[in-house]
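Appendix B.2, paired examples.
Example (i):
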Amino acid sequence: MVKVELKDVTKFYGKIRGVENINLSISDGEYLAVLGATGAGKTTTMYLLAGLLSPSSGTIYFDHEDITKKPAEDRDVGFVFEEYNLFPRMLVEDNVLFGPIVKDLDITDSKQIARELFVLLNIAGKEKNFPDEISGGQKQRVALARAIVSNAKLLVMDDPLRALDAKIREILQIELRKLVKDLGITCIHATHDTQEAMRVADRIAVFEDGKIVQIGSPEEVYNHPNSFYVADFLGESTSMEGRISKKKKESFFIANNGLEFKVKTDLKDGEEAIALVPAELLDIFDVEERETLNYDNIVEGKILNSKCVGEFNEIEVMVNGIIFKAKDLIGKEVPARKGSKILVATDKDDYRIFPKEKEIKK
């Protein structure tokens, strides 16, 4: 519906930086997820796009038109807040049609679009309810319908699913992406949840301290993080400090405690480094299976802790003073009791290797 560009956009709240020198291009019809911790600049970016804040410097374009100073009501942006912000004394139907009425759009066409959205979003039959008479998931669907029905060219969502329980959130993630793609709306969706960003987005922009530190497809960001911060933010992982050793055209990471792992890296021999391996890439086996395994790296350790989390067992294994974090599917026949010996197996391309920084942010 609209191509969006931010060029050198900066926003300060007094002396406090919201975002700084943001350069971002969002294609017509693209679904972009903005991922980052609290305070990273996600909400500031959403408010700048919607016109609820003005940048301290820089320019915002919609389809090459400079809309930096255009009022929010003239931008055709649908905004979905975390808190829903429905009018409590209005019926669901009146909440959804509020925008078209204020904008003096054709009410007959708007009602038809609203009816279609009620069916698509599975809230048909709730039109005559008040917001406090429907569930949290239904309220969020109403907020989505309200944002879309007003001829929105851009849909901006600020952590829209954060307040929902896990099952409803997962369902809505799938529904959201399908709806946005079916309608052809350009969408930018801010979230702190890595799995949510992976599920919904065509591309992910990772924010840190008011700046974009990496942008790419979910696969690119996950498989090729460009910094320790990005790799560490994307999920549970094990990290180690050490150095790189080159032997017979192979690269090895030598941890400070002496553990040695075959890895893939362009870092030079002797260079100090940090190795990180995501929990889901660690495979665990009974010690009796050692002779049947074909991995680049196999080390033995003892289980410190194991707990069931959804469809996974989250396991902590102590290996020579380092705690390895693993996620294994429930049902796999491996020891799970505290103190049990276990094998931790990895391949060389499971590791993300970074030059050692002066300070590692956790």
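Example (ii):
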Amino acid sequence: MAKAHPIELRERVVAHVEEGPTHRSTAEHFRVSIKSVNDMVKLKHETGSLAAKPAGNRRGSGKLEPYKDWVRSCIEENGDITTMQLSLGLKEAFDLDVHAWSVSRLLHRLGLSHKKRHFTPKSNSAPM
């Protein structure tokens, strides 16, 4: 992921646009993209600041966070429960439509996820 432009550059770009030149000529002058100029000017008008927004997906834990205690209790009661069964249980108990993959991510965040190990019997044949 690309790094944000320094705040000093952002201030100079916005000041240059406010003096009158077009966004295109400002972009050429400062050797940045036109989209960057547009975004900087828009950010200044919307927030009054030129500080870069946080990078990445910062949605948090999502809509399952309020139900984590319920999920924990289901796992304590039945350790063999699948993510699909938890998903269906959330639908029945709380009328919450959620994909099994989302439940799996919640379990991982809670430290409750594990891989099931397949049983493979040892070979009965003696080594030669």
